[in-house]
Amino acid sequence: MYHPATHRDGVPQHFVRDAELLERVNPARREREIDRAPADNIAFARIGSSLVKIDIVATAPQVGGEQSAGQTAADENELRWHSTEWLTADYADITDNQIRLNQLAQSPPRPQRYWVAQQTMKILSVNVGLPREVTWQGKLVTTGIFKEPVKGPIMLRTLNLDGDQQADLTVHGGVTKAVYAYPSEHYGYWRAELPGVNLPSGMFGENFTTEGLLEETVYIGDRFRIGETEVIVTEPRMPCYKLGIKFGRADIIKRFLASRRTGFYFAVAREGTLSAGDAVEFIGRDQQEINVSDIIRLYAFERSDVKGLCRAIEVEALPESWKGYFQHQLDKQLS
Asked: What is the structure's pLDDT at 119?
């Protein structure tokens, strides 16, 4: 699906919401091929579960009579990956000879193929912990938020990892919240927000500290293979007061939600062993495309988005508790 945007130097710019995944070209570099029209020279392309922002300028766009093929070739001669909030900058040059550029500039619009590299997705740390009693604001509280990294293979079961357990099963754990994942990319943000605070892996109570999986690019119902296991994304994490216990400060709860850096939960579709360092392989997506950030947005920031609420309710993998909440919000908007 293409969405017209602005113009730059007379060349139309478009944003690609979805890029068709065609085939793995070079497994060692995790490269993929996508189809694009020559007139499109900038895109957000989702490949697997990674969102990449790219300038497509490997071949001449369809420029009409106002710009020569030579000018186009001089201006548009490389494919650039841009650093964004969730991507690490990387560069790759792709050049065509002048004859090919002239042919492309004079030819009718048709899909062209470009090589792009998929961002690595993996588990950096596996963290587990059993409930313990702590004193918080003068009261004795039982919490399972304290997690420590483990080495070597560990068994993931339907309800949790071996050696891990939740304390209050009325709000934590269960089939749809068996495993909590938190992006390692967010740790830099929190180090800047909380100077002097030690932030080891597992600090947010996550079981998986991940790389390459962001709330903007992970969708409810996405299915992944990790080691022997298969997991399904179900919902974002909503902070409770026990996050304040972990950090020793009550304000972290509001700051956590306001940041929209919540991480997300997995349900377990296939039990098995996994280890820190394992790749996270995308294997399927729900037909209704609602990402984790959409759920956060509809819950806390844009509760009157009727269209978004309707879409969220239709997502099969979203737990019934969320659907009920959104249905209630929707009924209020329509009444």
From this structure: 67
